[in-house]
Design a protein that fits this description.
7 helices; TIM Barrel; alpha/beta; seven-stranded parallel beta sheet
């Protein structure tokens, strides 16, 4: 069951890819960070396993991680196969490498573009501007390809209004409300949780640009879903 974003509550098959070289302080899938943490499959075997696990009325297949861009060539092949089954594909990535993202994009129907905040510890401040450039390029590519695209930003008690506003300025300098299927503010869970007061301030910053902004927590935590 999907517990995040604009499609929360939809019946979803998750394909979790091992490997992520980054280190968000609030990461809830630390077991999937090492590249050798998962079980190794050929692409053919992985596609067969996906078909076997697909249940009736599954809304979409979600590629997540780790980060799927680490294994972008395999993800592209699997996503292409899933599309042939007439099931929508969904990419959940930090979008840190626009070239790898663009390799996968033709085979993805639904795209979550996640912007990590400065305080996330995803990368250090020296490399943060380059990371943001890559995410913006991914956003631009997804919109140009007319994919169903939405933006998500995870915020914590460490996130400042100024840094959040800078992200918004970057995002809405290249996109408009008509380009996006949603804008999600997601509070951290269980660590450095933001106050309701600050969540509403983040909401108010987005609202003039995108009135359909939503604050949505990780509902899978509430449902007890894995």
């Amino acid at each position: 069951m999907e517990g995040e974003g604009i499609l929360y509550g939809t019946k979803t098959l998750f394909v979790r890819l091992a490997g992520c070289p980054f280190s968000c302080f609030y990461c809830d899938t630390v077991d999937a960070l090492p590249l050798d943490s998962g079980k190794e499959y050929t692409v053919e075997d992985a596609c067969n396993l996906i078909e076997k696990k697909l249940e009736d009325k599954t809304y979409k297949v979600n590629f997540t991680g780790g980060d799927p861009l680490i294994q972008h060539e395999s993800v592209a092949l699997m996503a292409k196969h899933i599309q042939s089954l007439k099931i929508p594909t969904y990419l959940e990535s930090a979008c840190f490498d626009s070239k790898k993202f663009n390799h996968i994009l033709p085979f993805i129907d639904l795209v979550k573009i996640e912007f990590k905040t400065e305080d996330s510890e995803f990368v250090d401040l020296k490399h943060y501007p380059n990371y943001i450039e890559n995410v913006l390029e991914c956003l631009r590519s997804s919109i140009s390809a007319k994919k169903i695209t939405y933006v998500k930003i995870v915020v914590s008690s460490k996130t400042t209004l100024d840094s959040f506003k800078k992200l918004l300025d970057n995002i809405f300098s290249l996109t408009s409300k008509n380009d996006l299927a949603g804008f999600i503010i997601q509070p951290t869970y269980g660590v450095s949780e933001p106050s309701l007061e600050n969540l509403l301030k983040f909401y108010d910053l987005v609202y003039p640009n995108y009135k359909e902004v939503r604050i949505i927590p990780q509902l899978q935590k509430i449902m007890g879903a894995p």
